[in-house]
Amino acid sequence: MSAIVSWPRYVWPQVALSQRVYWQDVAFALVGAVMPVAMGIFPMVQVRDLPAMASGLRPVDLLAASGMCVSVIWIAYAVINSAARRRETRTYKRLRATPIPASAILGGEAVSAALPALVQSAVVVAVAVGVFHVPLPVHWGIVALGIVAGAVTIALLTFGVSGLLPAGELSTWIITPFVIVMWYLSGSMTVATGSASTVDRIADYLPSTAVVQIVRTGYFGQDYVAHGLSSHPHLGLGEALGAIHQPLGVLIAWAAVGYVLFRTFFTWEPRAARRRSRRAATR
Hints:
The protein is about 75% helix and about 0% strand. It is mainly alpha-helical.
């Protein structure tokens, strides 16, 4: 019981340390801070003059909700860079020499990665409401659930994957195309029309798509999980929670995969990281 009680005391100093290290590289930090906001707003600019659809919502409304999720998807870029850098500078090795448990280090890093995403999502929705006259969310709690659960999931998954990638800046170059693909397939760039394609149905099992489905459903109080709906009837809070069970399950599954990868492949020292990268490349 005492270990459970003291665990948060280890996590929050780790969050503070992670944030301090993150902002030491101003150029990287600014890219990570500004790019997700720009990527979330730009699709709205392209469709701002389009009329309302059959559902009564404008394309800019839908892209505002999904624009909040771009910062969550972009966490993968920030985490992979941070993990590689802190491994190379032996920051993780020094932390492992302290009484801080590995789970607290991972938890602190995940929370630290999620904090900027929450602020960026708030900026996107503020611009959407103030500039594009998008309505405020219907179910704030579900929107927050989607953002937080998605942020933690992608952070855990990326930390796990980082143990399989080469050290240094090469990891960032490798992960960036995957971030862009997740962004595109999530539906954050365009508003889908017509029946769902095979690619759409496969994309349902990506964490990025799951976040968008949860946030859109909560934002408008309508079912944006099921495909092929001719109309989107309004849902109460309980009904909306029932509608998001599939994407929420997808996030939980990916978070579990990320944790398993972390326990199996994540490395704390640069030399070990390079050895594992070489072994993975030769398999």
